[in-house]
Design a protein that fits this description.
The protein is of the alpha/beta class and 524 residues long. Helix content is 38%, strand content 19%. The protein is globular and about 85 Å long.
Length: 524
C-alpha cells in the first residue's frame, strides 16, 4: 500500500506486535493518528514515538495528524516528516492566534505582533467569516515558519539546539526532551551526526545529555588509552577559548609544565557539560566547538557528570602514576568526588585567587617538580594525539594500526596534521572537526576493521554512492563518519563521508549514502 494508518493504542504490551505487523505491510507512508490524545502526556508520547521509530522502517514517510505547532520541532527530531492543518483549523475557529509557537487569544491583542498580509487586514475586518479566513491564513503561515525553521536547523546540523530552545518555552516540552534523553538515548544517538557546523551552544540542563555529548563521554571512557610513557596526570580547568591550548590560561599552564621539566605528563581538562577532555582530543568535535554560559557556579548534576568522567579517566592510569589537580570551585568538587569513586589519591595544588594567579602557578610548578618524569619528544606527543583520535573515531586499536613505528606526523601552519609512512600520505586531520580522514593508503589499513560500506558491484562512478547501491554497512556508522567503501571483491574502492547511519544505508531505497572523498579509479 502507498499509505497505512498507525493508531495510538493505550496498551504498551501490544505495541511491538501491532507496529511490527503494520511495518510488514511495507507502506511508503505511515499516518500517525490519535497523537492528540497523548500530546500533553510527555511520558506516553515519548514512549509511543520511540516504539514507532523502533519498529517502522526509516524508508517510509511519517505523517502526524492533528498535532499543534508547538510540538513540530520535537516531533521532527523524532522522525516525523509531514504535518497537517487540522489543529490550526480548530484553533482558528476558537479565535486563537499563533505567535512564535505559542497560542494567544486574538481578542487580547491591542495590536498584532505579526506583519503578514493577513494580520495587516485583520483589525479592519468585521465579518466573522472573513476574520476566520485571515486568522487561519496567519496561523498557517506561522506554522509553516516553524517548519521552515526546522528545515534550516537540519541543514545546519543544529536541530537539537532548536529543540532545546523550544523546550525552554514549555514545561511539557522540557519534560518530553528530558524523558527522551533518558529513555531513548540510543535511538537519538544513532541519527545524530558525528560532527556539526559552528558552535555547540549548551545553555542549560537540557544540554547535559545531548546525544553528541553523551557519545563523546562514552567514547572517551571506552576508547581512550593513555600513552605507555605516561608517568603523571595533570587535571586542569577548561577555558572559554577552544581548543584549550590556544587560550591564555592554558598557555600559562603549558609554560609552567615545561619549566618544571615534566615531559611524560598527560593532561585532562575538566569541563561542563562534557566532563573531561583528554588533551589529545581537545580539537575533536564537540570538545573544540561547545560554548556554555560561564557563571562560575556548578549545579549538583554538573558535578556528578564531571566526577564520573574524571574517575573513568584516572582509572586508566597505573597506580604508580602521580595525579595532580590544579582546580578550584566546581572543578575541585567534581575532582574530589572522582577521587572517592576511583579510589585514587590526588595531589592538590594550592589555589590563591584563581588558577592563573602567580602564587597558584608557583604552587603548580613546585608540585610538578616532585613528580617522576621521562624524556618524551614533541614529535612523540603529536603522534600520540593522532593515535588517540584514530581510536576515538574508529575504535580501540585503530590508532596502533595506523600510527605504527616508521610513521611521522607533519603539522602545517593552519594546524592540519598529516600522517606519513615514508613519503606516502596515510591520513590528515580535518581543521573543522579535528577528526581524521584517511587516504586510500590509510583506508587499506582500517577498511575491514570498522566503518565499512559494502557496495553492490565492482566500481562506481561519480562523487557519491546512492543508498540502493549499498549491500551492507557497519551498523556503528553515524552520519558524518568517515567510511570505507568495499566492493563485491572485498577491495577498497573509496573513502568517503557517511550521509546516513549504517542501518539507514541498508534499509532506505533513496538518497545519498556516501559522499566520496578519495576513490580508486578505473582498473587501478
Amino acid at each position: 500500500p502507498i499509505a497505512a494508518p498507525i493508531y495510538y493504542i493505550p496498551y504498551k504490551d501490544l505495541w511491538e506486535e501491532y507496529l511490527s505487523g503494520i511495518n510488514a505491510a511495507g507502506a511508503e507512508m505511515y499516518v500517525l493518528k490519535g497523537l492528540n490524545r497523548i500530546i500533553h502526556n510527555p511520558r506516553e508520547l515519548a514512549a509511543f514515538m520511540t516504539a514507532v521509530n523502533k519498529f517502522i522502517s526509516p524508508n517510509a514517510v511519517v505523517y502526524a495528524v492533528g498535532v499543534p505547532p508547538s510540538h513540530y520541532l520535537h516531533l521532527t527530531y523524532l522522525g516525523v516528516d509531514l504535518f497537517d492543518a487540522a489543529n490550526l483549523i480548530g484553533a482558528s475557529l476558537n479565535g486563537l492566534y499563533l505567535f512564535e509557537g505559542k497560542w494567544y487569544q486574538l481578542k487580547d491583542f491591542k495590536s498584532l505582533p505579526c506583519f503578514c498580509d493577513a494580520c495587516v487586514k485583520l483589525p479592519s475586518v468585521l465579518s466573522e467569516d472573513e476574520r476566520f479566513q485571515l486568522l487561519f491564513k496567519h496561523n498557517v503561515l506561522s506554522a509553516l515558519g516553524i517548519l521552515r525553521k526546522a528545515e534550516l536547523l537540519i541543514r545546519s546540523t543544529q536541530l537539537r539546539e532548536g529543540v532545546e530552545a523550544a523546550a525552554h518555552c514549555s514545561t511539557e516540552l522540557t519534560a518530553l526532551l528530558r524523558i527522551l534523553d533518558r529513555d531513548a538515548q540510543r535511538l537519538l544517538e544513532k541519527y545524530t551526526p558525528i560532527s556539526g557546523k559552528g558552535k555547540v551552544h549548551c545553555v542549560g540542563p537540557e544540554s547535559y545529555y545531548r546525544p553528541s555529548l553523551e557519545r563523546f563521554r562514552g567514547r572517551v571512557a571506552e576508547r581512550y588509552t593513555p600513552p605507555k610513557w605516561a608517568t603523571a596526570v595533570l587535571l586542569l580547568p577548561c577555558s572559554a577559548r577552544k581548543p584549550y591550548s590556544q587560550s591564555p590560561s592554558h598557555k600559562l599552564f603549558r609554560r609552567v609544565v615545561e619549566e618544571a621539566g615534566v615531559k611524560s605528563i598527560c593532561e585532562g581538562i575538566v569541563t561542563s557539560p562534557l566532563g573531561l577532555v583528554p588533551r589529545e582530543l581537545e580539537e575533536v568535535y564537540p570538545a573544540a566547538h561547545y560554548d556554555v554560559p560561564v557563571t562560575g557556579d556548578w549545579d549538583a548534576e554538573e558535578i556528578e557528570i564531571a566526577a564520573k568522567c574524571i574517575s573513568k579517566y584516572i582509572e586508566k592510569f597505573p597506580d604508580d602514576c602521580a595525579i595532580v589537580a590544579h582546580l578550584d570551585g566546581g572543578y575541585l568538587k567534581a575532582c574530589k568526588k572522582a577521587s572517592e569513586i576511583a579510589g585514587k589519591d590526588i595531589i592538590y595544588t594550592e589555589i590563591e585567587g584563581n588558577p592563573t594567579s602567580s602564587s597558584s602557578l608557583l604552587s603548580l610548578r613546585e608540585t610538578l617538580e616532585r613528580v617522576p618524569s621521562e624524556e618524551v619528544s614533541w614529535f612523540e606527543r603529536v603522534k600520540e594525539a593522532f593515535r588517540s583520535v584514530a581510536d576515538y573515531q574508529f575504535g580501540v586499536g585503530a590508532g596502533d594500526l595506523l600510527v605504527k613505528q616508521g610513521t611521522h606526523v607533519k603539522v602545517e601552519r593552519k594546524g592540519v596534521k598529516r600522517l606519513y609512512r615514508g613519503d606516502v600520505l596515510l591520513a590528515a586531520s580535518s581543521p573543522s572537526t579535528g577528526l581524521i580522514v584517511p587516504t586510500m593508503n590509510g583506508g587499506e589499513i582500517l577498511a575491514k576493521r570498522s566503518h565499512w560500506v559494502l557496495f553492490r558491484g565492482e566500481m562506481f562512478r561519480g562523487s557519491s554512492i546512492m543508498a540502493p547501491g549499498v549491500e551492507d554497512a557497519d551498523p556503528n556508522i553515524r552520519p558524518g563518519d568517515v567510511v570505507f567503501v568495499i566492493n563485491s571483491l572485498e577491495r577498497l574502492i573509496g573513502v568517503g563521508e557517511a550521509n546516513l547511519s549504517g542501518e539507514e544505508m541498508v534499509e532506505v531505497s533513496r538518497g545519498v549514502a556516501v559522499k566520496i572523498k578519495h576513490a580508486r579509479r578505473g582498473g587501478s
